[in-house]
């Protein structure tokens, strides 16, 4: 077996600046309703927490037991 050089990743400049959608599982940790609609605070699989509109979330109708253990406060 010979030595193999590591493959250098190809830079994809054609993708830089493109806009897309990233779908990943989130858990709702807080929610507020106003005349604008419902805003939810969510935690993603990396532990990052952010606010978004409920319209942007497709609910699975499942509860995450960890969500009730550590509620985030703002």
Explain this structure:
This protein has 74 residues and is mostly beta strands. The chain has a domain at 26-69. 7% of the residues lie in helices and 30% in strands. It contains one helix and three strands. A three-stranded antiparallel β-sheet has the order 1-2-3, with no helix packed on it. The longest helix is centred in the C-terminal third of the chain and has 5 residues, at 65-69. The radius of gyration is 19 Å and the shape is elongated. The mean pLDDT is 81.
Task: Provide a brief overview of the structure.
The protein is mostly beta strands and 74 residues long.
User: What would you report as the Rg, rounded to the nearest angstrom?
Assistant: 19 Å
Q: Which percent range describes the beta-strand content?
A: 25-35%
The tally of strands reads 3
Helix content: under 10%
């Amino acid at each position: 077996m010979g030595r193999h050089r590591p493959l250098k990743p190809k830079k994809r400049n054609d993708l830089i600046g493109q806009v897309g959608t990233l779908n990943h599982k989130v858990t709702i940790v807080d929610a507020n309703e106003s005349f604008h609609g419902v805003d939810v605070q969510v935690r993603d699989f990396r532990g990052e927490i952010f606010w978004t509109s409920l319209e942007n979330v497709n609910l699975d109708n499942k509860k995450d037991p960890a969500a009730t253990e550590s509620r985030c406060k703002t």
